[in-house]
């Protein structure tokens, strides 16, 4: 593996290893704050401890429904029947869309009921519409969790009602929320809607931050006696180098107000304590490296997307990068093929990020004579 040091800026101040900014005191049992622009966890406490997720469960419920829409297994305008099981959810449960067995709501209406009103009845109706039964749908939820490698999540229902074995962690819920944002941007708008009226019953979105912070555009609240008050919140703020999205998860707070205020505290701290620095543009060659046995003598290596890193505020000028790549690099090379890693660290040696490096343009293999000549040169080398 060959290493190549690439300075990011013309001048560096050699500094002692900086201490990571310490988050404010957060009155929550578990929390995590993630910078989705740089893919960095900024703060956490017991983020991998399984907990009762309450209605945060409905993030995965919605994700599976979005997948069914993507795969054309149903459409937003399609109507679904309301089973007795869905109607029975109203017994003693305040989280309802208030559908009944005489109705055939559209998928779009049920999604609004699920996301904005946190309707357990809407969750059941959607699950049955996608998978035939709630039990089949729960299997799809667990299968998706396993595909993402969520080790602290196991679903037993689609609503989040407390049930033995039904669990998730703050980090696992953050992963689920992030996938909704990145995989289904066309449906993410549901999470920013402040209220929804169905069957002449108007209900406010329980995410109080939607009315307090104009940069907050989602996502989901939850509450049970076992879980306490929980909130997944996402904000997208403008900065000179582009937009920057942070995602917070707080679990086990004491009240509706507390889950909102503690989430706001985390988000505000994340934006002020850390800077997002763009070090390479999308599609830009980060390194030109020699290629053997190819039609070209060099290959351009770069990242799949623009490379952003999160650093403590004021430390943007204390970064350096190192390219680690396969050596020798032998053609043929396919476009998008991973052949190395870009490591970003402070000048004091503190790791900041690792980014896969891929081939920007394909390099076909050379002809027989070219391959033979390079084989000889490699042997001599």
From TrEMBL:
**Superkingdom assignment:** Bacteria
**Enzyme kind, highest EC tier:** hydrolase
Active site, renumbered:
55, 58, 118
Q: Which GO terms describe its molecular function?
A: serine-type D-Ala-D-Ala carboxypeptidase activity
What EC number(s) would the UniProt record show? Answer: 3.4.16.4
Q: In which pathway does it act?
A: Cell wall biogenesis; peptidoglycan biosynthesis
Q: Which GO terms describe its biological process?
A: cell wall organization; peptidoglycan biosynthetic process; proteolysis; regulation of cell shape
* Residues that coordinate or bind substrate: 220
- Asked if Cell inner membrane is a keyword of the record, the answer is no
Q: Quick one: signal sequence residues?
A: 1-20
What keywords appear on the UniProt entry? Answer: Carboxypeptidase, Cell shape, Cell wall biogenesis/degradation, Hydrolase, Peptidoglycan synthesis, Protease, Signal
- What does the record give as the function of this protein? Removes C-terminal D-alanyl residues from sugar-peptide cell wall precursors.
Q: Which family would the database say this protein is a member of?
A: Belongs to the peptidase S11 family.
- Protein name per Swiss-Prot or TrEMBL: serine-type D-Ala-D-Ala carboxypeptidase
């Amino acid at each position: 593996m060959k290493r190549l040091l690439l300075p990011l800026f013309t001048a560096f101040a050699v500094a002692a290893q900086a201490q990571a900014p310490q988050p404010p005191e957060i009155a929550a049992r578990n929390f995590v704050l993630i910078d989705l622009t740089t893919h960095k966890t900024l703060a956490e406490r017991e983020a991998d401890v399984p907990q009762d997720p309450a209605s945060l469960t409905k993030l995965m419920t919605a994700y599976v429904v979005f997948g069914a829409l993507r795969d054309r297994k149903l459409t937003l305008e399609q109507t679904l029947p309301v089973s007795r099981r869905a109607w029975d959810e109203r017994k003693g449960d305040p989280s309802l869309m208030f559908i009944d067995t005489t109705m055939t709501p559209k998928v779009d209406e049920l999604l609004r009921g699920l996301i904005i009103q946190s309707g357990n009845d809407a969750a059941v109706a959607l699950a049955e519409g996608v998978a035939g039964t709630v039990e089949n749908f729960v299997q799809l939820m667990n299968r998706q969790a396993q595909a993402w490698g969520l080790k602290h999540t196991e679903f037993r229902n689609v609503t989040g009602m407390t049930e033995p074995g039904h669990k998730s962690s703050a980090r696992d819920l953050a992963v689920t929320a992030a996938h909704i944002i990145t995989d289904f941007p066309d449906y993410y708008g549901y999470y920013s809607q402040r209220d929804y009226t169905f069957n002449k019953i108007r209900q406010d979105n329980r995410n109080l931050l939607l009315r307090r912070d104009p940069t907050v555009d989602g996502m989901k609240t939850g509450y049970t006696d076992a879980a306490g008050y929980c909130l997944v919140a996402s904000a997208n703020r403008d900065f000179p180098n582009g937009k920057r999205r942070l995602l917070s998860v707080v679990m086990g707070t004491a009240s509706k107000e507390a889950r909102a205020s503690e989430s706001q505290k985390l988000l505000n701290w994340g934006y002020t304590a850390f800077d997002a620095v763009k070090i390479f543009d999308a599609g830009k060659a980060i390194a030109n490296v020699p290629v053997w046995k190819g039609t070209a003598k060099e290959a351009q290596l770069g990242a799949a997307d623009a490379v952003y890193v999160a650093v403590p505020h004021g430390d943007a000028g204390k970064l350096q990068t190192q390219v680690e790549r396969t050596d020798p690099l032998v053609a043929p090379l396919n476009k998008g093929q991973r052949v190395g890693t870009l490591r970003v660290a402070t000048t004091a040696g503190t790791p900041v990020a690792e980014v896969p490096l891929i081939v920007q343009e394909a390099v076909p293999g050379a002809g027989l004579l070219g391959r033979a000549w390079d084989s000889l040169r490699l042997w001599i080398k």
